[in-house]
Specification:
alpha/beta; Rossmann fold; eight-stranded mixed β-sheet; 13 helices
């Protein structure tokens, strides 16, 4: 006799939904697991740092946020120093990145006077943390980017796009079919869910051109919300002036592959076990993001590996500057943290950086030496 599966509340709700209406898309599963009003992962917890489930770049070193703050100050001047600036962060975490960024950017009195800080955050728990961390700057919170008033814009999005819902497709002998989430017996998946291929064949036009003819068995991931947001960012900076900076893990080119994953307590976790209690992410397709933003008329240089970008912004000299006034142990920790951010065997290559800018911004800090056409860098920079 099959042993009963012990499910949490959200898993029970999802199973009922599937049993009544049939399999759901992976995008719907991710949306509910991460953002369900009562049981979503981000709604009632602080997942960041050593006491949470994962560590992001701002928690690794203050230098990361400081360099992005300097980038913002330089871009504001390249925008001819508008008297009003909408500085936006999408997914601000604990507010750590923005704290470090503003400590540097606001050394410029004009920047500080122009600043209007806007945070795109849906989690009530994280909004409370961010409000305390950034109280000096009186942040205004929004559920969506579209709610931020028009005006000259600079936007930062670090590890934001990877959490946007994706759909998965598999190439079969009959064509591409979507991989849907359905209920399963415990013998198939202890989490109570598993993948099943849709009955209907997906139109090949929904599959990105670079991977459309991938061999049978290939899988691709597409995030429609990510593409829509990239297009919207392009429209915004083209209309209002300014630029957006996207930093995340992913590939500089569109390619087949399956990257959907879950992390809990700093370890990989079954993404179908206890939905709402672990983070769900997927690698970002930077080529498709760039193409979506270019379609809106924005200027989008080729993406760069994070290590190359941070080195161009001066991570080495800044680390050395901090280390000079520190004791030997602290100095070693500073250098180790900065090396972690740029290591070509790790974050320096796994993470990519994309700039989306107004067409008149022909000199974007960090990208000046990068090609400005539609070609893309090799992952090694």
């Amino acid at each position: 006799m099959e042993k009963a599966v012990r499910l949490n509340t959200l898993a029970t709700l999802l199973r009922r939904r599937i049993e009544r209406g049939g399999p759901i898309s992976l995008a719907e599963y991710m949306t509910l697991a991460l953002s369900h009003r009562d049981h979503g992962y981000y709604q009632h917890r602080d997942p960041f740092g050593t006491s949470g489930d994962f560590i992001t770049a701002p928690e690794i070193s203050q230098v990361f946020g400081e360099l992005l703050g300097g980038w913002c100050a330089v871009l504001w001047e390249a925008m001819e120093s508008p008297s009003t600036l909408r500085l936006i962060e999408a997914g601000p975490g604990r507010g750590t990145l923005m704290q470090d960024a503003l400590r540097v950017a606001c050394r410029n009195d004009g920047f500080r006077k122009a600043l209007h800080l806007h945070l795109v955050e849906t989690s009530g728990a994280l909004r409370d943390v961010q409000a305390r961390a950034l109280a000096e700057f009186q942040p205004v919170f929004h559920d969506h980017l579209d709610a931020v008033p028009d005006g000259p814009t600079l936007l930062l999005a670090n590890e934001f796009f990877d959490a946007l819902p994706i759909r998965q497709y598999e190439q079969t002998a009959d064509g591409w079919r979507e991989r849907l989430v359905t209920v399963s017996p415990m013998t198939v998946s202890p989490g109570g869910f598993c993948f099943a291929l849709a009955d209907a064949v997906t139109s090949p036009l929904q599959i990105p051109d670079p991977v459309r003819d991938a061999p049978i068995g290939s899988r691709v991931e597409i995030s429609l919300p990510a593409l829509s947001l990239a297009h919207g960012l392009g429209e915004r900076v083209r209309r209002c002036g300014g630029a957006a900076l996207v930093l995340d893990y992913g590939s500089p080119i569109t390619k087949p592959g399956e990257s959907f994953q879950s992390v809990r307590d700093h370890r990989f976790h079954d993404p179908f076990a206890n939905p709402g209690e672990a983070d769900l992410t997927a690698h970002v397709d930077f080529q498709s993001l760039g193409e979506a933003a270019r379609e809106s008329g924005a200027r989008v240089p080729a993406s760069l590996p994070q290590g190359v970008f941070l080195e161009r912004l001066g991570i080495g000299p800044r680390a050395e500057q901090l280390a000079q006034s520190a004791d030997p142990d602290t100095a070693a920790a500073i250098h180790a943290a900065c090396h972690r951010l740029i290591d070509r065997q790790g974050m320096g290559t796994l993470f990519q950086v994309l700039a989306i800018a107004h067409p008149d911004l022909v000199a974007i800090a960090g990208f000046d030496a990068a090609p400005t056409n539609d070609t893309h860098h090799d992952a090694n920079g």
